[in-house]
């Protein structure tokens, strides 16, 4: 069995003070992908930077206090790669992949965007250059007899079932028609990936993985499903369980996102 968990920690130092370490100590995963770490390794305590029982790989952003991704593995990775070959995003702290026996696992933090701003332009540039890399990653994995799994905060709700208030968000970044169409390409013939959570839960709303801290979004389950595990078809076919680890209460949350955990046979 291979169990992979992915979560946007919304600042690893802050999460560590709210319960992240306690969660990690009870985590049964073989791999944990983190997004929005927002810290360099030197800024983390030893307990957070190198948790007992884990091999930790980091890709911080050159912009201080922004982005940052990490991958924790129970066994030492065979290789670690930062970025996906596009100079603009090489040091942006948005993509890191590790090779494990038979499988490449990546942590992704896709830009969030904001309509009418440079942030949205950046998001669109990222999407435009990242899809060809995903195609390349899948093709190379197939040639090598391997599988690939890209986990993380994709910052796009793909379908109406992926966010509670979809009607009110049709003109907002994260649910724009062009963003959703791009994700359809990732999951279609061009990209060839499988959204493993949706594959196991095809007929339900959600399960949501992000809730705003404003109002009572969490209590009312007014959320978005923007955290995905996208697998190559061979690996996706071995998925036996997929769930969002939603906190029992608002007070017990240590991030505005919840961990997404998938088990492969």
UniProtKB/TrEMBL annotation:
Site (Interaction with DNA substrate) location in chain: 257
Cofactor(s) recorded in Swiss-Prot or TrEMBL: Mg(2+); Mn(2+)
Cofactor binding notes: Probably binds two magnesium or manganese ions per subunit.
EC number: 3.1.11.2
PROSITE patterns: AP_NUCLEASE_F1_4
Pfam families linked: Exo_endo_phos (PF03372)
Keyword vocabulary terms for this entry: Hydrolase, Magnesium, Manganese, Metal-binding
Site feature Transition state stabilizer, where: 155
Protein name: Exodeoxyribonuclease III
Species of the source: Streptomyces sedi
